[in-house]
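Crash report, auto-generated. Payload:
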Amino acid sequence: MSIDQTVAEITRLVGGQAEGDAGLRLSGIAGLSDAGPQDLSYLDLAHQKYLAAAAATKAGCVILPAAARGAACPAPARIYVENPQRAVRLVLEALAARQPRPAAGVHPQAVIHPEARLGAGTSVGPFSVVERGAEIADGAVIGPQCYVGAGARIGRATRLYPQVTVREGCVVGERCILHPGVVIGADGYGFDTDRRTGTHHKVPQLGNVVLGDDVEIGASSTVDRGKLPRDSTVIGAGTKIDNLVQIGHNCRIGRGCLLVAQVGIAGSTTVGDFVVLGGQVGIAGHLRIGDGAQVGAQSGIMADVEPRQILFGSPARPHREAFKLQAVYAKLPEMHAAIRDIRRKLGLGSEEPGRKSEA
Amino acid sequence: MSIDQTVAEITRLVGGQAEGDAGLRLSGIAGLSDAGPQDLSYLDLAHQKYLAAAAATKAGCVILPAAARGAACPAPARIYVENPQRAVRLVLEALAARQPRPAAGVHPQAVIHPEARLGAGTSVGPFSVVERGAEIADGAVIGPQCYVGAGARIGRATRLYPQVTVREGCVVGERCILHPGVVIGADGYGFDTDRRTGTHHKVPQLGNVVLGDDVEIGASSTVDRGKLPRDSTVIGAGTKIDNLVQIGHNCRIGRGCLLVAQVGIAGSTTVGDFVVLGGQVGIAGHLRIGDGAQVGAQSGIMADVEPRQILFGSPARPHREAFKLQAVYAKLPEMHAAIRDIRRKLGLGSEEPGRKSEA
Amino acid sequence: MSIDQTVAEITRLVGGQAEGDAGLRLSGIAGLSDAGPQDLSYLDLAHQKYLAAAAATKAGCVILPAAARGAACPAPARIYVENPQRAVRLVLEALAARQPRPAAGVHPQAVIHPEARLGAGTSVGPFSVVERGAEIADGAVIGPQCYVGAGARIGRATRLYPQVTVREGCVVGERCILHPGVVIGADGYGFDTDRRTGTHHKVPQLGNVVLGDDVEIGASSTVDRGKLPRDSTVIGAGTKIDNLVQIGHNCRIGRGCLLVAQVGIAGSTTVGDFVVLGGQVGIAGHLRIGDGAQVGAQSGIMADVEPRQILFGSPARPHREAFKLQAVYAKLPEMHAAIRDIRRKLGLGSEEPGRKSEA
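Recovered output after restart:
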């Protein structure tokens, strides 16, 4: 995948200001340490440790943040932009646009129910199954080996990678991306337990899942269907979910959220808009997480969260408090020794109150 | 999915006592806040916050626990029952029974080995593979794109949703439900590491998995096969496993357990009957978890657990102790300050013993 | 699966020293408690609790570590070896070698692009898809329902179990094993967020994944592709990954590592050689984990780790320190009471400094 553009052309593409050899023709894009004289590279200040790499790079051209005008960078050409991440994204989008797309049409080895409806320019790969009443909107791509259940709806220009399951009645928005192994609309985890015998009777799960537009869901993540016939588990527009994430039945996740890998959210929890959940975060059921809340990796949420709170820990606390507690926690042995010394000094013995012979 | 029954008919179905307009015909079922005048709803006292919703509902009929006779509820009809969860389950079962079932028969695009045995009324979906010697018992449904390995046995009336893998020799009980992406019988994680070179030699995994009757396993969960030829990883009858759960080789999980999403159990651990493991719980290998134990979400178990213990935390402790410790943990900064004050008062300096210049 | 060998033959196979009835013919292999008079069993000293089982076993022959010459064991034959795990592995390998292997050849219901290249003796199962330019090297087995993307390369003698996805351009080494549901090369989790609107623009992920030789990846684990066209997410030779593990884009995992189930590693983190990560460990992005580091289950890594460090906890600390802190943590209530007593004794009141009326 060759860029094959000059520094001047890329500067126009990303809306920046060029310095140095604007006529230099670039063929590739690579990290600061990997790039050679034909390559574009970039400095992302989000990780300060990459400043030294910028000073030592062999790249032909480096995209730099305007804020780093003073940073050392020996590249023969430099492009200054407000936001290097955005600039790199635009370059990669231009490259991605040249990749082959699956051809439109239904593979002869797909099984499409005669009462399913396929829009213009849709693509259905080999060994995929589209059941009765399902709708695949214009330009949607159903990869190989996918399952689209009865009455399910796949929005315009949405892409299902191989081996995705969308069960009956579920609704996927426009321009969504579902990565391999995603399961949309499996039964929620609901049982009615007989207290006498302990038998767990399955509660039928008759709702569906509704994904808004521009939702992306990572490989092997699972979103369970709602319980009652009119219940939907909802993922709001623009929310991006990483791999191996679990969303329980009847959850409502807002718009523009980021759920990092291996997050788990139990049933009936409502998550506001633009919430960020770090990797492996767990959230109990029937809670309400406010707009803009941010939760650090591996945290456990067991109570409602106010909007814009930043939480950390298991159980989670406001992050400043959590960090403070962690800092004091590290002093526990010294605190324990200090108490023993004080007690000795005061003639109270070296044992804490309430402790038994196990010392 | 319309209910289309009167309050009187539903009262009979759920075995309750009706109050108000017993002739009211209901068309749907919905949560207290969503329900309209044609809808059935219900109050589940497990979540007290729903009491206010009961007082404000627009539902035509509400199922209430007998214990909530005094609760405010303006619905024109009310049905009192011992257990609303059970009542709702019965209503949903009646609705679910009207859903279309996959037709019996083998799809022409399934690959069934001539030496596989299919019982009466079985259904095998398109692109599924059933290998030599596998047995699919009467009434079992093998969804599309499933894999049933050589000699595997699928019990009567069991259902495999799309894209389930059951590897060779594994045994699935009767009336089990395996959701999309489930993997039964992958190799256990076993290596013989050469201490000199660090090379990990794979130990062949020659056992199988045995699922009891009425086991349900959530989407993309994995249960590894036993190590020795006669070893089974066992999931007891009636145990319900949520999504993205991992069960290591040679584990024995008892009857009637509940394993919530993203639980992981390392190899050779034995879990008793009616054990409840909250979401993201991890259990180390070669342990014994007693009958009826309950473990809070995100807890980590590193030692045997007595029957009926209730544990919490990582590492897990008896829940009362864990909550107590959490409560005192929150006071750490004040404890730290108190020790400093006491030391100052006693002329011991403000430093704890054993601390170096890093202050 | 019958062993059908004498004690003498097995002694030769495992390179040990026999005691007792060397002519005894064995038919099976089983754990100490399960084995009968025709069975081989073994004592693995890694778990001391099995010593009692050795003394009570009914096995015909037991493999014992040379270090356990004194251990009680009533079996009519005993084989002493340096390393029982290795001996059992050799016996199981001999058994596994007798299992039927998938026949070479392409199933008529697989879809192979005419420009894909298949080596000698390869096997491709039903309903698998191999795209344009993909290469399947000699002796590789592509199970049923797998997807091998355009230009992907599968190494010699590698095995893909059913329902594995290897996306375009990814490279799998020789003798690798990918278990059912594995996803190699899904898009990394990368977004360029507009700070004004909160919109997350997808950053195309144009790199690939490179798995070294002898890599094994457990069921439903996911390894994301690199971001830039020349970026690879790399898993080093001989590394063994358990089920439901997530490896973020641009990670570089070294050789000979062990990643236990449900581990998650965020993007751009480098893990050295022979690192061991316990179950459910989480590692933040852009970190460097030194060679030979070991991290206890459920730990969370938020900073670089030196070679050979042994860490535990979330956030992780050197394990001795972590265990010490855990031990003192358990004394928190007594420490709290002691401080209160001291303050009372010194006439300071029973309240800690800085605490308000909430007592």
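Post-recovery validation: The mean pLDDT of chain A is 94.
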